[in-house]
Specification:
The chain has about 400 residues and is mainly β. The protein has six helices and 16 strands. The radius of gyration is 27 Å and the shape is elongated. It starts with 8 loop residues before the first helix and ends in a 7-residue tail after the last helix.
Length: about 400
């Protein structure tokens, strides 16, 4: 059991404290630079020493202090909070490490921090590469609208207490949220994402055990660019689908994921899917009917405009498996360059493929083999490309056959 920190006269004397115009205490500086733990007192801690009123501290002073100690505790004694002297609706990078700072902090207990007025917590803990534990249990985040890059670059992060109960109902942007973070156990399954618009690179370069987003509301999400790029683990996509999603470029690129609920992840308005599944080392361990790439094709509407590299370089697949593209509607497509280039699976349904006759199809099937797309089938489908812009270029789709 962790020993409770004792704020006594000795600790009190280490603080430089001033009073504001309302006679409330303002913490200015902590004088003990040798101590490895920084305990930031609240109203209940200072009362025995003659101070009354809500304790506050400047954003800049708090930011500097946090990066000078291995453990930082903002007191939550008697449930009293410590606030900021200046505007506390936007705390851009408050607990982050950037610039010339060389952070030491490994543990942050921030239960006593007043978050009731916060609107923007962009870069909150970003690039705290030594940080291992965070406690934000009980935080009031009911007004937060932006949580962009909050945990980005926290490579050694192992635990965030209270994360699961944050109120995210007003958050519109969580881009880069956990990008490059080392945390593996993330329980955010109950987050209320009714206002979410963008989640680009939110989980990029991560190795998580099980990321359950099945109950998330994606009704307003328009952009998931690189959301899971180069990540590993099991993910459960929102069961209600993504009816507003327009951009899913590189959403799963270079990832080695078990993707659940793709059959329910409808994307009727998807316009661009550049490199959406490219270079995925898909092992085909599940039945063909559960193949997430096949299910994605089945769930995409008729608004696709750009599918460049969409399935390019998918590797390590069983040579007996195939991808049926007969339901793929490319009638509005403008660019399908390298869409299936060097993909290691058989392609079926080319004869039924609906494609815009002005679409740029350069190298659409570059590097595929005769047994994957047989020459006869391609020839039967040539009439669908006959009016393509610059026919000579379009013919390259069969050059390797």
């Amino acid at each position: 059991m962790t020993k409770e920190f004792v704020f006594d006269r000795k600790e009190f004397n280490k603080w430089e404290i001033r009073k504001d115009k309302n006679n409330n205490p303002v913490l200015v500086d902590y004088k003990d630079k040798e101590n490895q733990t920084l305990y930031i007192p609240n109203e209940a801690d200072l009362a025995p020493f003659g101070y009354k009123g809500t304790v506050r501290i400047k954003q800049h002073d708090l930011h500097i202090l946090v990066n000078e100690y291995e453990k930082v505790i903002i007191s939550n004694k008697n449930n009293k909070k410590v606030g900021l002297t200046d505007s506390d609706t936007n705390i851009f990078g408050l607990f982050a490490a950037y610039g010339t700072l060389q952070p030491k902090v490994k543990e942050l207990d921030l239960r006593g921090f007043d978050t009731s007025n916060l609107v923007d917590i962009t870069h909150l803990f970003s690039h705290q590469y030594k940080l291992e534990k965070i406690n934000i249990d009980g935080w009031n985040t009911s007004n937060i609208a932006r949580i962009w890059s909050a945990f980005e670059g926290t490579k050694n992060l192992k635990e965030v207490k209270g994360l699961e109960s944050l109120n995210m109902s007003k958050v519109g942007y969580m881009d880069y949220l956990f990008k490059d973070s080392g945390i593996k156990d993330i329980d955010i399954s109950n987050w209320d994402t009714r206002s979410l618009v963008s989640a680009t690179k939110a989980f990029k370069n991560m190795n998580f055990k099980n990321l359950d987003l099945s109950n998330w509301n994606f009704s307003h999400v328009t952009d998931t660019t690189e959301m899971f790029k180069n990540s590993t683990g099991t993910i459960s996509l929102p069961k209600s689908g993504a009816n507003s999603l327009e951009v899913a470029d590189s959403m799963f690129e270079d990832s080695d994921l078990i993707i659940e609920n793709m059959d329910k992840f409808k994307m009727p308005k998807l316009r661009t899917a550049i490199s959406m599944f490219s270079d995925c080392p898909y092992h085909w361990e599940v039945a063909q009917v559960d193949n997430p790439m096949q299910l994605a094709i089945n769930n995409i509407g008729n608004n696709l405009e750009n599918t460049m590299n969409m399935f390019a370089g998918v590797w390590n697949t069983n040579e007996n498996h195939e991808l049926d593209i007969s339901k793929l509607n490319l009638s509005k497509a403008k660019n399908t360059n390298f869409m299936f280039a060097r993909a290691k699976f058989k392609i079926e349904g080319l004869k039924q493929l609906r494609i815009n006759n002005k679409c740029n199809t350069d190298y659409m099937f570059y590097g595929t083999k005769d047994e994957d797309i047989n020459t006869k089938r391609v020839k039967r489908a040539q009439n669908r490309f006959a009016k393509a812009r610059k026919l000579a270029r379009a013919q390259k789709l069969g050059r390797e056959l």
